[in-house]
């Protein structure tokens, strides 16, 4: 039995319509997939599973958040930070100069105090021992009160120690013991200013300027020692000038 030509033509038309419908559906699916890739939000891209309508993979989802770039923090700095840095620089210069007050003129000072130059050199040695003793208190001061407490403590010790030394040189006869007490007080002050630059720069300067600020304040300490070695021999060329030399240094330190 053979189908009629009309029936055959009807079947061909039905087959073509099915093919066209299938092609149209595939094109629509492809368009939807392309639109979904271009307009999907970050939350829709948590894992490959969400692209086909499945539940997100919990092992893959957190990885997107870990890869997000966190913007760097913005630091606000103030011009007055330079004033505090200048204080640190000057105090490091002064405390190191005070340390080497009598070493460059050891023979002259020995004649003034009627003692030996080896005894005069103990002034510098006692200064270093005082530095070690004050180190734990320096750590406590920086952690509790910050650079401000450290600077105030150091200033008071430097001021007191210098004028006690001057009183010892002014006494009649000159009191080497009083000079030693003043020298020890100044030695207790040194770790407070020598350890403060790092903490101060981390509080007041941005990461770009911290290294430079710390270096400037730290290098001031050996610079003060160099000034003492250079200037003090000109201030005390004979024993009678030990007393005015100590006065000049006390005034500068104040």
Q: What would you note in describing this structure?
A:
The structure is a single chain. The chain is an all-alpha fold. The protein is built from 10 helices and no strands. It has helices at residues 5-39, 61-66, 81-99, 106-113, 117-144, 146-170, 176-194, 196-204, 207-235, 242-253. Helix 5 (117-144) packs antiparallel against helix 6. The protein starts with a helix and ends with a helix. Residues 35-53 and 56-61 have low confidence and may be disordered.
Q: Short summary of the structure?
A:
The protein has 254 residues and is mainly alpha-helical. The chain is built from ten helices and no strands.
What does the secondary structure layout of this molecule look like, with pairings?
Elements lengths: L4 H35 L21 H6 L14 H19 L6 H8 L3 H28 L1 H25 L5 H19 L1 H9 L2 H29 L6 H12 L1
Helix pairs in contact: 3-6, 3-7, 3-8, 3-9, 4-5, 5-6, 5-7, 6-7, 6-8, 6-10, 8-9
